[in-house]
Amino acid sequence: MLKDILSISGKGGLYRLMSQATKGIIVESLETKQRTMIDQHYKVSSLNDIAIYTEDEEVPLKDIFVKMHQFENGKKASIKVKSSADDLKAYFEKILPQYDRERVYVSDIKKVIKWYNLLKEHTDIDFDKKEEEKSEEPSENEAQAEK
Q1: What is the mean pLDDT of the chain?
Q2: Using one digit for the tens of pLDDT, what is the confidence trace for 94-130?
Q3: Could you write out the three-class secondary structure of 32-52?
């Protein structure tokens, strides 16, 4: 779901991985659809690899987006990113009650909300659909059975 969606340090917004290039990667902005080359000097993170600290474990970002989607009944976040710190924390506590208040900063909460809204507005990601653990291609035994 989120493996091809990237966050790039020093650049706002989210990007879709388009292609590998000799000296980096080619990405497309979700908002502007503008393509650009990103070299190895930038820190690039797949949203699939990002997690939020809780008191017990780390919760993958995709699970938080699913919880937000359910909380918001499939709509964009009802809170504004420019809301007060207390309001943002209260909102995030409704989404993830056990989040680690010492290690998750207001800036992190703002990013999660902004990214969720960007994904809702500029992608067709289905937050209701459960991701399949196995690949879409049939196994060797399944392929043999079809013949």
Answers
A1: 88
A2: 999 999 999 999 999 999 999 999 999 999 888 876 5
A3: CCCEEEEECCCCEEEHHHCEE
Burial (CB < 10 A; 0-12, 13-18, 19+), residue 84, is: exposed
The neighbouring-strand residues paired with 51 are 60
Q: Which residues contact 125 (CB under 8 A, 6 or more apart)?
A: 1, 2, 119
In contact, 94 and 88? CB cutoff 8 Å: no
Hey, what domains does the chain have and what are their CATH numbers? 5-47 (2.30.30), 50-122 (1.10.10.1650)
* Residues comprising the chain, all counted: 147
Tokens representing 95 are 């989404």
